[in-house]
TrEMBL record, chain A:
<keyword id="KW-0813">Transport</keyword>
<feature type="signal peptide">
    <location>
        <begin position="1"/>
        <end position="21"/>
    </location>
</feature>
<dbReference type="GO" id="GO:0042597">
    <property type="term" value="C:periplasmic space"/>
</dbReference>
<dbReference type="GO" id="GO:0019808">
    <property type="term" value="F:polyamine binding"/>
</dbReference>
<keyword id="KW-0574">Periplasm</keyword>
<comment type="function">
    <text>Required for the activity of the bacterial periplasmic transport system of putrescine.</text>
</comment>
<dbReference type="Pfam" id="PF13416">
    <property type="entry name" value="SBP_bac_8"/>
</dbReference>
<comment type="similarity">
    <text>Belongs to the bacterial solute-binding protein PotD/PotF family.</text>
</comment>
<dbReference type="GO" id="GO:0015846">
    <property type="term" value="P:polyamine transport"/>
</dbReference>
TrEMBL record, chain B:
<feature type="transmembrane region" description="Helical">
    <location>
        <begin position="77"/>
        <end position="101"/>
    </location>
</feature>
<dbReference type="GO" id="GO:0005886">
    <property type="term" value="C:plasma membrane"/>
</dbReference>
<keyword id="KW-1003">Cell membrane</keyword>
<keyword id="KW-0813">Transport</keyword>
<dbReference type="InterPro" id="IPR035906">
    <property type="entry name" value="MetI-like_sf"/>
</dbReference>
<feature type="transmembrane region" description="Helical">
    <location>
        <begin position="207"/>
        <end position="232"/>
    </location>
</feature>
<keyword id="KW-0472">Membrane</keyword>
<dbReference type="Pfam" id="PF00528">
    <property type="entry name" value="BPD_transp_1"/>
</dbReference>
<feature type="transmembrane region" description="Helical">
    <location>
        <begin position="263"/>
        <end position="284"/>
    </location>
</feature>
């Protein structure tokens, strides 16, 4: 009876605290944070954190354009952020509430300013590259020890990919990632907005299309780790997660990630506050919490992506800071490229081309 | 007065749940895509008085419908959706009719249980059931393992990510919608009619063909509509079970909305889809009414 009464009191107290507690709603990518950080934020600030996840920029963008999403913090990638800023989806950050801004890394800030001039609307959360993940054993068995696993030749040269088809090839279902890569491969400007130049990638994709088992943006993590497929074009951190899962499973699969030497796309996921956020004050507190050097390092140590926080480097584990696939050398960094958003007319050409590549019509 | 209220209820239903949403979608279809929130222009501003309403209407046009004719993707997708819907409705009818017939012929004390069994799958989320099919149909899935074990096949069959998987998924999902109306038509049938037919020299097969089928006609029609109409716009089943070669209008609509961020063109696609569905149904009902009047 006594315990019963106790539970009831505790329940009532909890209800009361819920009624008064401040709330902040965060909408981030799936598998993208160390969940202990969420509890830590609640303990430090006393604010209730409601954390939801999404898995595509398109989904987030539709919510932002429709308005009234109810979120206080969202995490779009560079080009999507830029377009949503232009559409009036975000509010300017109140930098006086963000003392931890001093921790940010100028090298990353210079690049993100391309999407968000002056970094007025967003802070960098994580960044990475789009490249090639391979099952080293299988690929070398088929193409020999000199297999070009660090080159777009592996993907876009029909001679190579046709041989690899038997062990399974996945490709991101994201034209904004794949078309710049193909442009780079044929020696064009990867950030070209000219429909005639973009059209030059059509024969490149059509030649390799029969050898692609699936266009998908998340299945490759497991498929690569299990050994179901041997090649995937994907995001750096995802492929590194596949590498670690394979190593943990000890199933004889060795996964390697490479940002292709011809040049790979560099992308940035940015945290921003919607213009109609219910609690912008708490949103600023969350951003400041994330920019804390130790917190940011904890997130990177967990998801294996690089971040835009210079001060956090002191707290990163060697597995992350010492891996050139996550933190590339200065020279490799110069080899990476960024892209800018297509205008609606070009976007339409690109989507149409991508439908044709995937379905043949 | 009471009669008026009775008639008003379905009309209110129609206006609130069909006409108003349709007008909103049509309005977006006549707008232009813009980088704004929401992403189209013009926006209706009633506070501006008549002038702003007049300018609003003058800015609407049919450009997006015209655009749909410039690319063969759209009619190919409509046609392919119609074809998939027709074929899977036929399949569902062929599978569903014998089940409904068996249920209606079963002993009366068994019928509630059988009915329950048909409805039971709805208690699990539709999405989970479709995911379960992915597990059954994949290369290392249950079906292939079973067939390999039986020795019927030597190599696993590729079913997942093909149109065959889409048909399996659709027939499975929509089967109850076919069975229930046919069952309710068959259950009400008077058995003495069949006896009379046999007394008059019909074989059992021709009695089925000449008596049972015509009497269950309304159930068949209702079942076919209940399956055919949602299947045309189906998005979840083709995107989870189908391959990249499966072309359906639901997928095209998704791409217009999410990838191109072109709500106006997406709305135009949706309006045309509605017309494709509604016009044949209106024609059909008119035809039915004429027949009834002719008979009456």
């Amino acid at each position: 009876m006594k315990t019963h009464l106790l539970t009831m009191t505790a329940g009532a107290a909890l209800m009361a605290s819920l009624a008064h507690a401040e709330e902040v709603r965060v909408y981030n990518w799936s598998d993208y944070i160390d969940e202990e950080l969420l509890t830590k934020f609640e303990e430090e600030t006393g604010i209730d954190l409601i954390y939801d996840v999404f898995d595509s920029n398109e989904l987030l963008e539709t919510k932002m354009l429709a308005g009234g999403s109810g979120y206080d913090v969202v995490v779009p990638s560079g080009t999507f952020l830029q377009r949503q800023i232009q559409a009036g989806s975000f509010q300017k950050l109140d930098k006086s509430k963000l003392p931890n801004l001093g921790n940010m890394w100028d090298v990353v800030e210079q690049r993100t300013a391309q999407y968000d001039p002056g970094n007025d609307y967003s802070i960098n959360y994580m960044w990475g590259t789009t490249g090639i993940g391979v099952n080293v054993g299988k690929v070398q068995e088929i193409l020999g020890p000199d297999a070009p696993i660090d080159s777009w030749e592996l993907i876009f040269n029909p001679d190579n990919i046709s041989k690899l088809a038997e062990c399974g090839v996945h490709m991101l279902d994201a034209p904004a990632e794949m078309i710049p890569a193909a442009l780079k491969y044929i020696g064009e400007n990867p950030d070209s907005h000219d429909p005639d130049v973009i059209a030059k990638t059509e024969p490149v994709f059509m030649a390799i299309r029969p050898h692609i088992q699936k266009f998908h943006s998340s299945e490759y993590i497991n498929a690569l780790a299990n050994g179901d497929i041997c090649v995937a074009v994907g995001w750096s951190g995802d492929i590194l997660q596949a590498r670690d899962r394979a190593a943990e499973a000890d199933n004889g699969v060795e996964v390697a990630y490479n940002a292709p030497k011809e040049g790979a796309q560099m992308w940035f996921d940015q945290m921003a506050i919607p213009v109609d956020a219910p609690n912008p004050d708490a949103a600023h507190k969350f951003l400041n919490f994330i920019m804390d050097a130790e917190n940011m390092a904890a997130a990177s140590n967990y998801v294996y992506y690089a971040n835009g926080n210079a001060a956090s480097k002191d707290y990163l584990i060697e597995d992350v800071i010492g891996d050139p696939a996550i933190y590339p050398s200065e020279e490799a960094l110069n080899n990476l490229f960024t892209t800018t958003p297509w205008d609606p007319r070009v976007q339409r050409t690109v989507t149409r081309l991508w439908t044709k590549i995937k379905s043949g019509t | 007065m009471r009669r008026f209220v009775l008639i008003a209820v379905p009309y209110l239903w129609l206006v609130a749940l069909f006409l108003i949403p349709f007008v909103i979608v049509l309005k977006i279809a006549l707008s232009d895509v813009a980088l704004a929130r929401p992403p189209y222009l013009p926006q209706l501003d009633i506070t501006g008085g008549w002038d702003s309403i007049r300018t609003f209407f003058s800015e609407l046009d049919f450009e997006n419908f015209w655009f749909l004719t410039t690319d063969d993707l759209y009619w190919k997708a409509y046609l392919s959706s119609l074809q998939i819907a027709l074929f899977s409705t036929t399949l569902t009818l062929l599978v569903g009719y014998p089940i409904a017939y068996g249920m209606a012929r079963a002993a009366p004390e068994w019928r509630p249980t059988l009915l329950m069994l048909v409805i039971l799958p709805f208690w699990t989320s539709f999405l989970i059931r479709v995911y379960a099919w992915m597990g059954i149909l994949s290369n290392e899935g249950l079906l292939n393992q079973f067939l390999l074990w039986l020795g019927v096949i030597n190599e696993p069959l590729t079913i997942l990510n093909t149109n065959a998987a889409v048909y399996i998924g659709i027939v499975y999902t929509y089967l109850p919608f076919m069975i229930l109306p046919i069952y309710s038509a068959l259950e009400r049938m008077d058995d003495s009619l069949l006896e009379a037919a046999e007394d008059l020299g019909c074989s059992r097969l021709s009695a089925f063909w000449l008596v049972t089928i015509p009497l269950s006609k309304n159930g068949i029609i209702a079942g076919c509509f209940l399956v055919f109409i949602p299947v045309i716009g189906e998005f979840v089943i083709p995107s989870l079970l189908g391959g990249s070669g499966t072309l359906m209008i639901g997928k095209v609509l998704w791409e217009e909305f999410f990838s191109n961020r072109d709500w106006p063109v997406a709305s135009a696609v949706a309006v045309i889809l509605l017309l494709i569905l509604v016009i044949p149904i209106i024609l059909f009902q008119r035809n039915e009414q004429k027949q009834r009047e002719a008979e009456g």
